Amino acid sequence: MKQTASFISTYSADAFGVASALYELGGMTIMHDASGCNSTYNTHDEPRWYDIDSMVYISGLSEMEAVMGDDGKLIDDIVQAAGELSPKFIALAGTPIPMMIGTDYKAVAAVIEKKTGIPSFGFATNGMQDYLSGISMAFEAFAERMTQPMDVIPHSVNVLGVTPLDFAVCGYDRELVSRLQSDEWEVLATWSMGCSLEDIRRSAAAEVNLVVSWSGLAAAKKLQALYGTPYVIGAPVGEKFTAEVLDALHQSAKDKTCRDLCGASSSNGKIVLIGESVTSLSLAAALRKEGAGDIRVICPVCCEEHPGMIRALDEDELIRAMNGAEMVVADPLYQPICKDKQFVRLPHEAFSGRLFRREDVNLLTGFEQLKNKILG
């Protein structure tokens, strides 16, 4: 019962992360579940649902199929649907019930691929991990299987880790591409908003990769292992930190060295940021460049270790981690556990879904306004 939440929400699940990562790439994504997961995803966690068509389905797992382990019906249904819809790839993501009966997703995907001739992926998600885990699985698998060696294009870059679950649909992805292009970078692929499968396929031609959330890090490491592509970790936020990121991209392209710009957090800072690690640490770095003092970053989702950053996975840990803070910057659904602190609302799609979409902040164009709320 330790991870039971009494006052706050939970983050989007790993299966939803798979669907979000692959949403625009022209494939067919199936959540292996009885019912409910698909509707929760498309109504709360997928702002592109009504504007961009995508083949995201539920398998309709029945109680008898779960008891008897009838993978044959799942395979036959997917093969039939693929024959009618001709997707560019097939992705199968798991939920709690298939986890309990030990479904072998990679084996199921291998059978489907053999029957259809369509690249197929099985992701052992279980609905018990957060969205970043699912996105990371999907991106890493596509980096390994859907890219191929190409001649490097000078001054070219991929952006890894962009989905609406972290960056909403307030224009951050488009503004980031514009900033990169203004700095004379050719953007090959934005994994994966405003991106096609063809863009993904030519990602090996990039001179450097930019990782803007933890979900893109595994793909960056895979692309480095396969093609030697260096990467820079840091989400462009505000003008000064964005300039630092752009400079690091040029340096890494030249010396082939990976760089992490997220920097250190202060475990006792009076200002607390709660959220995904790379974006939160990047925001903290941008605020420090504007004169902010120590900032405490708390990450309640998948992340890498960073000096001073606090990992808090449940409600009790979060409350303890905020002891002594005077201000909290976080999704509005965190406010019930921050009653004695000044609170700055920063909606996070992966946490509150569609509830506060009108308040979404573009961390490039909206940084000044957010900075003024935090620093006064």
Describe it for me?
With 376 residues, this protein is of the alpha/beta class. It folds into three domains: 14-129, Nitrogenase molybdenum iron protein domain (Rossmann fold), CATH 3.40.50; 145-260, 3-Layer(aba) Sandwich (Rossmann fold), CATH 3.40.50.1980; 271-375, 3-Layer(aba) Sandwich (Rossmann fold), CATH 3.40.50.1980. 41% of the residues lie in helices and 15% in strands. It has 16 helices and 14 strands. The strands form three sheets. Strands 6-5-7-8-9 form a five-stranded parallel β-sheet, with helices on both faces. The protein has a five-stranded parallel β-sheet with strand order 12-11-10-13-14, with helices on both faces. The protein has a four-stranded parallel β-sheet with strand order 2-1-3-4, sandwiched between helices. Helix 2 (37-45) links the parallel strand 1 and strand 2. Helix 1 crosses helix 7 and helix 12 crosses helix 13. The longest helix has 18 residues, at 238-255. The chain starts with 13 loop residues before the first helix and ends with a helix. The mean pLDDT is 94.
Which word captures the global form?
Answer: globular
Order of strands across the main sheet: 6-5-7-8-9
From the 3D coordinates, which CATH architecture of the largest domain would you assign? 3-Layer(aba) Sandwich
User: Over the alpha carbons, how many angstroms does the gyration radius reach?
Assistant: 21 Å
Q: Structural class, judged by helices and strands?
A: alpha/beta
The number of helical elements comes to: 16
| Helical proportion, percent range | 40-55%
CATH T-level topology of the largest domain: Rossmann fold
- What is the residue-averaged pLDDT? 94
CATH C-level class of the largest domain is: Alpha Beta
Number of folding domains? 3
CATH superfamily of the largest domain: Nitrogenase molybdenum iron protein domain
- Compressed to H and E, one letter per element, the order equals HEHEHHEHHEHEHHEHEHEHEEHEEHEEHH
The low-confidence parts are none
Number of strands: 14
**CA distance, first residue to last residue:** 40 Å
β content, as a range?
A: 15-25%
